[in-house]
């Protein structure tokens, strides 16, 4: 892994679908200079793959606990991921 870079897969639970969570996540990630993707899951959760400078990834994880205005986040779980699976931009995957 590149020094100072971090990649995580994050699962966000709560009222996170139908509230603009994916668009909000994309905007926040881009503003922090992060790359990756975000998608809705069939069980109602949202999953994101996030990579970039360690401090910015940590900031994004903190922001995911808040979410957009109408979201209610009940849990955020982050697991380490390899940088090899991260796209060069930040996109909504589904």
Structure explained in plain terms:
- With 94 residues, this protein is an alpha+beta fold.
- The protein has one domain: Alpha-Beta Plaits (2-Layer Sandwich), CATH 3.30.70.100.
- The chain is 26% helix and 39% strand.
- The protein has a five-stranded mixed β-sheet with strand order 4-1-3-2-5, covered by helices on one side.
- A hairpin with a 5-residue loop joins strand 2 and strand 3 (46-53).
- The longest helix is centred in the middle third of the chain and has 13 residues, at 54-66.
- It is globular.
- The model has no long low-confidence stretch (mean pLDDT 94).
Task: Identify the notable features of this structure and list them briefly.
Alpha-Beta Plaits, alpha+beta, single chain
Rg result:
12 Å
Fraction in beta strands: 35-45%
Q: What CATH architecture do you see?
A: 2-Layer Sandwich
H/E element order:
EHEEHEE
Could you say which overall geometry the principal axes of the C-alpha atoms support?
globular
Distance between the termini: 27 Å
The major sheet is characterized as: 5 strands, mixed
CATH topology: Alpha-Beta Plaits
Which CATH class?
A: Alpha Beta
Structural class: alpha+beta
In summary, what is this structure?
By secondary structure, this protein is of the alpha+beta class. Helix content is 26%, strand content 39%.
Question: Topology of this structure?
Answer:
Elements: E1 5-15, H1 21-31, E2 35-40, E3 46-53, H2 54-66, E4 72-80, E5 90-92
Parallel strand pairs: 2-5
Antiparallel strand pairs: 1-3, 1-4, 2-3
């Amino acid at each position: 892994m590149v020094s100072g870079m971090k990649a995580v897969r994050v699962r966000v639970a709560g009222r996170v679908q139908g509230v603009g969570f994916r668009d909000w996540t994309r905007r926040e990630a881009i503003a922090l200079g992060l790359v990756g993707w975000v998608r809705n899951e069939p069980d109602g959760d949202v999953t994101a793959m996030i990579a970039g400078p360690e401090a910015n990834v940590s900031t994004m994880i903190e922001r995911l606990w808040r979410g957009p205005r109408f979201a209610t986040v009940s849990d955020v779980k982050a697991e380490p991921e390899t940088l090899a699976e991260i796209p060069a931009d930040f996109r909504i995957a589904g």
